[in-house]
C-alpha cells in the first residue's frame, strides 16, 4: 500500500485537479486522472521530500479563515495608502522576528501567508538563529508585529505542522 | 460561445460588481507601483491584484459561467490556488535579490545580516561585503 500510494493526500489532490481541469466526471477521465495522480506521486518519492502529516485539519481550516479575513482587511488598508493622499507621515521598515517553529513546511506556509497578505513581505530567513526579516509597508509599532506574527500565525502553524 | 445577454439580471449585477471591484483593485495595485517610494514599498502593491483582485474576477467568472451553463463551473478555483502558491515565491525572490544587492553595495536603509551565533565566533568582522558573501556561501 505504502509502496503504491506514498502520498495519499497529494494523490487525491492531483486527481481533483485533473477532474477540475477537464471539467467532467466520466469514468474515462477518472481512470486517466487516477493513473496520472498515482504516477506523479510515485515520481515525487524519488525527490525524498521531508515527511510531514497534516495533524489538525480543523486547525488548518480555521487558519485559512483567519488568513482570508486578514487578506481582505489589508487589501483595504493598502488600497487606502495608495489612493488617498497621505494624512500622516507613513513609515515602512524592516522588523526582525524571532521564531520558535522549525518545521520546514510550517515555515514555507508562514512565508506564503505573510507575502500573500498585502502590506507585509517575508524578506529573509536565517536558519542559524531561526529569525525572519519582515518588511512592513505601514510600520507603526515593531513590537506589535512580532506579537501579530507569533500569536496569529505561528501558534496555529505549530499546532498543525509540529 | 456563451451569450452574455442571456444572463438574468440577478446574476448580471453581482457579476458586474465583482468584475469592477477586481479590476479596480488590480488598477490600484498598478498605481501603487507608480506612487510608492522605494523598491521594498513598491513590491507590496501588486499583491492587491494577486489576492483580492483576482479573487473577485474569478468569483465573477464562476458566477457568470455557472448561471449561463446551468452547471457548477469550478475550475477557476485552480487559478486561485496556483496564484496563492506561486506569487509569493516570485515576490520573495525579488525582495531577496534587492536585499542582497543593497547589502553588498553597503546601503544604510537595509538591516545588516543577523550577527553570527556565539557558538561560531570564527567569522571575522571584516567589511560588510565579505560578511554577506560568507553568509550566502554557508547557506548553499
Automatic annotation (TrEMBL), chain A:
- TM ranges: 59-83, 104-123
Q: Which UniProt keywords apply?
A: Cell membrane, Membrane, Transmembrane, Transmembrane helix
Q: Which domain of life is it from?
A: Bacteria
Q: Identify the GO cellular component terms for this protein.
A: plasma membrane
Instruction: Say if the entry is tagged with keyword Membrane.
Output: yes
**Annotated compartments:** Cell membrane
> How does it sit in the bilayer?
Multi-pass membrane protein
Q: Which GO terms describe its molecular function?
A: monoatomic cation transmembrane transporter activity
Family membership, please give it.
Answer: Belongs to the CPA3 antiporters (TC 2.A.63) subunit E family.
Q: Which PANTHER family does this chain map to? A: NA(+)/H(+) ANTIPORTER SUBUNIT E1, NA(+)_H(+) ANTIPORTER SUBUNIT E1
What's the protein here called? Na+/H+ antiporter subunit E
> Which species is listed as the source?
Skermanella aerolata
TrEMBL record, chain B:
The membrane-spanning stretches of this chain are 12-34, 46-65, 77-95
A Pfam family this chain is assigned to:
PhaG_MnhG_YufB
Q: Which segments carry the region annotation Disordered? A: 104-140
Residue stretches of biased makeup (Pro residues): 110-121
Q: Which domain of life is it from?
A: Bacteria
List keywords of the entry alphabetically: Membrane, Transmembrane, Transmembrane helix
What InterPro entries does the database record attribute to this sequence?
PhaG_MnhG_YufB
Q: Which GO terms describe its molecular function?
A: sodium:proton antiporter activity
Asked if the Swiss-Prot or TrEMBL record annotates the protein with the keyword Ribonucleoprotein, the reply is: no
Q: What is this protein called?
A: Cation:proton antiporter
Which species does the entry assign this protein to? Answer: Skermanella aerolata
